[in-house]
Design goal:
The complex is a heterodimer of chains A (about 150) and B (about 400). Chain A is mainly β. Chain A starts with 5 loop residues before the first helix and ends with a strand. By secondary structure, chain B is an alpha/beta fold. Chain B contains 14 helices and 11 strands. In chain B, a hairpin with a 1-residue loop joins strand 5 and strand 6. The longest helix of chain B is centred in the N-terminal third of the chain and has 16 residues. Classes of the chains: A mainly beta (about 150), B alpha/beta (about 400). Chains A and B meet through strand 4, strand 5 and strand 6 of A and helix 5, helix 6 and strand 5 of B. Strand 4 of chain A pairs antiparallel with strand 5 of chain B.
């Protein structure tokens, strides 16, 4: 049940039938960051707060200037679900799988992804995880989460 | 504070000049031979007929959206062309299913201000010429830069709301199931409901997982169908076939885009504004509401919405549901047509307003609630991202 072993994780991550992101102009630097092996988010030049998904102005102070800044690749599970019926057929061979939203270290910053490396039944809110970047092909990198102690 | 109060008075005074006078719902189900336009056209004509208003009086359309997605569609003009008469008021709130209650309030204000005389508020869709999977993939493409690659979108977002609610407040799967059970009991009395068979809490809990902690019967239907209601002036309403229904208040809050933004408070939605605000405009408290018709894409949606509208405190939705009987004959009539969970989920939110109207008109047949005077109707879009509320009542 779920992608637990290293082989199973690799198969899940490299699944050629998962939908790939349609990368927007605004989101480009996020994906470029992953490609460079970093988790980068917009950080407001005025108030210093991080935001994701990217926006043209800071939702907290309204300032438009932002710098893409690398963040520690770890977080804590804010909430999650074990998906048994995926919205996209490409995930069918991999059910059940876990989707989680993480709280990252900068206040208010969150990230969504799959928790792999343990059986879905063992995933809990509050669990610390590390964020692992996966090179999918020559152009695209994605990421997944694994328990921090794995 | 004084200024706020006078604003509320103005909204209520304006709304009082309009009324809902007619409703119609098309067949609901798997209508692969019907187009969206075809179904909506049937709904408009049916609702005008129900009101006893000649189609030539129709001059406003609220709801629906461009079938092509192109900026050059001239959606409002398409209706003029189809109806063979000018449309002089058009309004589409592009906020998924959250637009419906907003359309009702906007249409009433349009009538009150003289922009239009007779407005059809419409919703629903058909599938002719396109597959449902195609529309899911389109949604993923438009929303999904930051989540589709991880197998997300609906219903996993609502499942994550439920998971967090259970974690924070101890809400149980049994409490969520009671919403599905109560709603099904209402649907069993509604001949046009898609799902009418008996349903127990155990049936819900034993149905297959969709996205934990949501089971199959925690989830709404996915189907085709359309509906419409007609709003006109109080003067014109006097000549209509059925008793007019007043719109006493309304409010909107669009908090985030939906299946994209994750930095919001997962346990406080825009309904925490739209509920109290629209009830204040109506001059009513939650206890004075006889009928509760809230958008129910998932059971958790209903539980969260009841909290935010003010029927119970945040976190107490589970015990509130456990402490009331939601089905026929109960003390808290909820989604009395059978909701999106069991009746139909083709124009959910507007369907809830149509049901509230019929109940207030005394036209609900064997599922008629005993002499309701007031109703709250809530529309929602995204994972509790987009909200509009309307308070309806028997016109006085």
């Amino acid at each position: 049940m779920g992608a637990v072993t290293a082989d199973e994780i690799r198969e899940f991550v490299r699944n050629p039938n998962r939908p790939f992101p349609e990368i927007s102009v605004q989101g480009g630097p996020f994906w470029d960051g992953l490609r460079a092996g970093e988790l980068r988010f917009q950080r407001c030049d005025a108030c210093g707060r991080y935001r994701h998904p990217p926006r043209l102005a800071c939702p907290f102070c309204g300032h438009s200037g932002a710098t893409w800044s690398a963040v520690e690749p770890s977080g804590v599970i804010h909430t999650f679900t074990v998906v048994h019926r995926p919205p996209d057929a490409g995930f069918k061979p991999f059910v059940p799988y876990v989707i989680a939203v993480l709280d990252l270290a900068p206040e208010g910053l969150r990230l969504l992804g799959n928790v792999l490396g343990l059986p879905p039944a063992e995933v809990k809110i509050g669990m610390p995880v590390k964020i692992i970047i996966d090179d999918i092909d020559d152009e695209l990198s994605l990421y997944h989460f694994e328990p921090a102690d794995s | 504070m004084e200024e706020t109060r006078s604003e509320r008075r103005d909204l209520r005074r304006a709304l009082k000049q309009a009324a809902i006078v007619g409703t119609y719902t098309t067949p609901q189900g798997n209508l692969s031979d019907r187009s969206t336009l075809d179904l909506q056209y049937e709904a408009i004509m049916g609702a005008l007929d129900d009101a006893g208003i000649d189609r030539r009086e129709l001059d406003g359309i609220a709801g629906g959206r461009s079938p092509s997605g192109s900026a050059a569609t001239a959606y409002a003009g398409m209706w003029s062309e189809l109806l063979g008469q000018p449309i002089r008021y058009a309004d589409t709130v592009d906020a998924a299913a959250a637009g419906h209650s907003a359309h009702i309030v906007h249409a009433a204000l349009a009538v009150a201000s003289g922009l239009a005389d007779v407005v059809a508020v419409i919703g629903g869709s058909g599938r002719a010429g396109g597959s449902r999977q195609a529309s899911v993939l389109q949604m993923a493409a438009s929303h999904g830069e930051y989540d589709a690659s991880w197998g997300s979108i609906v219903p996993s977002w609502f499942a994550m709301v439920a998971q967090r609610h259970m974690h924070e407040y101890g809400t149980t799967p049994e409490q969520l199931a009671q919403i599905a059970v109560g709603t099904r009991a209402w649907a069993s009395l509604n001949e046009s409901a898609i799902m009418r068979g008996p349903l127990t809490v155990d049936d819900v809990l034993n149905s297959r997982w969709i996205a934990e902690p949501l089971h199959l019967f925690d989830c709404c239907l996915v189907n085709d169908g359309a509906g419409a209601l007609i709003i006109t002036s109080r003067e014109r309403a006097a000549g209509c076939r059925h008793a007019p229904v007043a719109i006493l208040g309304g409010a909107e809050e669009y908090s985030f885009r939906g299946y994209v933004s994750i930095e919001h408070d997962w346990l406080r939605s825009g309904a925490a504004y739209t509920g109290p605000k629209s009830l204040a405009a109506a001059g009513l408290s939650p206890e004075e509401i006889d009928l509760v018709e809230v958008y129910d894409c998932f059971t958790i949606t209903v539980l969260r919405t009841l909290e935010d509208l003010g029927f119970c405190k945040r976190g107490e939705g589970g015990s509130f549901i456990a402490g009331h009987t939601l089905g026929p004959g109960g003390d808290f009539p909820l989604n009395t047509h059978g909701g999106g969970l069991s009746w139909s989920h083709s124009f959910s939110g507007l369907a809830h307003a149509i049901e509230a109207t019929r109940q207030l008109q005394g036209l609900s047949g064997n599922r008629q609630v005993s002499q309701p005077e007031t109703a709250i109707v809530h529309s929602q879009g995204g994972p509790l991202a987009l909200h509009s509320t309307a308070v309806l009542a028997k016109a006085r």
